[in-house]
Amino acid sequence: MIKSTVLLAAFVLLDATAAQAQAINQSQMDRLDRDRNGAVDRSEYQTFMTSAFTNLDKSKDGALSRDEAARILNAQQFAATDADGDGRITQEEFLNRVMADFREADRSGDGTLR
Ligand SMILES: [Ca+2]
Ligand SMILES: [Ca+2]
Ligand SMILES: [Ca+2]
C-alpha cells in the first residue's frame, strides 16, 4: 500500500505501538479517509500531516528541531526535509516533503490514494 517513510513514521507517532509501527493497516487508512469514500485525497492527507507536525513541535515555535524530529526522521531524512539547511524544519518544509511523498505514492496520478 503506502510506502512512505514519513507517512509511516507519522502513524507511529500518533499511535505509538509496536504493532502499528510495522505497517499501515486498514484501520489506519480509515483514520486518514475522513469522508469514508475509500480513498485518501490530498486534503485529507494534508490535514493529517498538519496535525502530526503540531504534535511533533513540542516547543510550539512553529518548527521542528533535530530533537523534535528525531522520532520520525533520521539525520539524512532531516537534512533532506530541511530545504534551506537552517537546522529547523518549518511546517512549510515538512508539508513540502510529505506532499512529495503523496505524489510519489499516488501512482495513478488521480490525486487520491486507495
Ligand atoms: Ca476520502
Ligand atoms: Ca519546535
Ligand atoms: Ca529549514
UniProtKB/TrEMBL annotation:
InterPro entries named in the record: EF-hand-dom_pair, EF_Hand_1_Ca_BS, EF_hand_dom
Domain EF-hand: 20-55
The keyword Signal is assigned to this record: yes
Keywords: Signal
Keyword Heme tagged: no
Signal sequence residues: 1-21
Top-level taxon in the UniProt lineage: Bacteria
Name of this protein: Ca2+-binding EF-hand superfamily protein
